[in-house]
């Protein structure tokens, strides 16, 4: 697949990844290479990556625990300390091999260590490939609040090798698929329609859809890197989705929801709000609910949970001047930004999801 160039970095695919990273290593004369992994990517992905690397530069491996609950400043402090103890300097390179937690946190660590060292992201989950790979967002959670601390800063390279998807459990694949479905809803009915029958998708089809999804996000981010306008469309489903994800993450009695699973709920809720507020056709609203429901099933959300979930909306990063701003759909492929939504409609949307 053809490499994708953004304003600030280049995204390479499959075999091109290793040609690109080896050329980068040979041309930049890094003092040391630090590879950040979790226990899963250490076992399943790191051996593949190292077998393709051609360099005489010393390599150190830093491992953190997997999972969103470890995407914290405390984990960052551990990695910063490890870098210091292993004599990292400003000419060091950090390579982050993993899902969104690794690439978000590793990018943030690299951007802040000694006021910034170079880094390369190697997303190994579908979610990280189509979402975290583009746009330079780095950061960590603050308690149970998602991505409250971070910076926008791009890696030198992004390397997307779909061979790593073979190491993923099905629920992680489904989590990433949610972002691809979102890309269709906000930009392209034709892309959305390519997901009508997942049973017919072959490996080559998936590679092409991943590539197209990255292009969609690249085209948005290049126009609006700092989320002043168009980039806000990428938050469709995320206002309530992030609140639901945070709520479930913070309640030990609730099942763990992966990011994509929570965003799917948020997209269905937002489809209802879109129908009520921005003229999104009822037929399309029902199609969104039906298709996403068929793929992901339904999460039981108690009515007593609605209010505490809604209370978390005030922490959403899109909020300004005390207002909660939603991204809604006018049609499949067309969004409206900065929509104000009354509380009673959010409650109705939860009931629409539950029916």
From TrEMBL:
Keyword tags: Cobalt, Lyase, Metal-binding, NAD, Nucleotide-binding, Zinc
GO MF annotation, one: 3-dehydroquinate synthase activity
CDD domains membership: DHQS
EC top class named in words: lyase
EC number annotated for this UniProt entry: 4.2.3.4
All copies of domain 3-dehydroquinate synthase N-terminal, residue ranges: 62-174
Residue ranges of every copy of the 3-dehydroquinate synthase C-terminal domain listed in the record: 176-319
Cofactor: Co(2+); NAD(+)
Pfam family, one: DHQS_C
InterPro entries xrefs: Dehydroquinate_synthase (IPR050071), DHQ_synth_AroB (IPR016037), DHQ_synth_fam (IPR030963), DHQS/DOIS_N (IPR030960), DHQS_C (IPR056179)
PANTHER family per UniProt: 3-DEHYDROQUINATE SYNTHASE
Function: Catalyzes the conversion of 3-deoxy-D-arabino-heptulosonate 7-phosphate (DAHP) to dehydroquinate (DHQ).
Protein name, per record: 3-dehydroquinate synthase
Gene encoding the protein: aroB
């Amino acid at each position: 697949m053809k490499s994708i160039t953004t304003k600030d970095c280049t995204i390479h695919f499959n075999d091109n990844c290793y040609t690109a990273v080896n050329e980068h290593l040979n041309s930049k004369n890094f003092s040391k290479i630090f590879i950040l992994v979790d226990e899963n990517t250490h076992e399943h992905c790191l051996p593949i990556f190292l077998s393709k690397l051609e360099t005489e530069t010393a390599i150190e491996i830093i491992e953190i625990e997997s999972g969103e609950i470890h995407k914290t400043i405390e984990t960052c402090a551990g990695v910063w300390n490890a870098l210091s103890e292993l004599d990292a300097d400003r000419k060091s390179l950090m390579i982050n091999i993993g899902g969104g937690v690794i690439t978000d946190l590793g990018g943030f660590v690299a951007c802040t260590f000694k006021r910034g060292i170079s880094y390369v992201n190697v997303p190994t989950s579908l979610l990280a490939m189509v979402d975290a790979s583009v746009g330079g967002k780095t950061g960590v959670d603050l308690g149970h609040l998602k991505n409250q601390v971070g910076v926008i800063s791009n890696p030198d390279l992004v390397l997307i090798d779909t061979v790593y998807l073979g190491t993923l459990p099905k629920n992680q694949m489904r989590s990433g698929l949610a972002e691809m479905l979102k890309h269709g809803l906000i930009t392209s009915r034709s892309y959305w329609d390519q997901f009508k029958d997942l049973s017919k998708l072959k490996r080559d089809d998936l590679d092409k859809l991943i590539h197209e999804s990255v292009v969609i996000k690249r085209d948005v981010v290049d126009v609006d890197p700092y989320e002043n306008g168009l980039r806000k469309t990428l938050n469709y489903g995320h206002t309530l989705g992030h609140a639901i994800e945070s709520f479930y993450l913070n309640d030990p009695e609730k099942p763990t929801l992966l990011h994509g699973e929570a965003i799917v709920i948020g997209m269905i809720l937002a489809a209802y709000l879109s129908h009520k507020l921005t003229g999104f056709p009822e037929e399309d609203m029902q199609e969104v609910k039906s298709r996403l429901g068929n793929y992901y099933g339904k999460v039981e959300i108690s009515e007593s949970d609605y209010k505490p979930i809604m209370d978390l909306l005030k922490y959403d990063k899109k909020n300004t001047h005390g207002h909660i701003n939603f991204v809604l759909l006018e049609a499949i492929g067309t969004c409206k930004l900065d929509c104000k939504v009354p509380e009673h409609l959010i409650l109705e949307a939860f009931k629409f999801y539950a029916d």
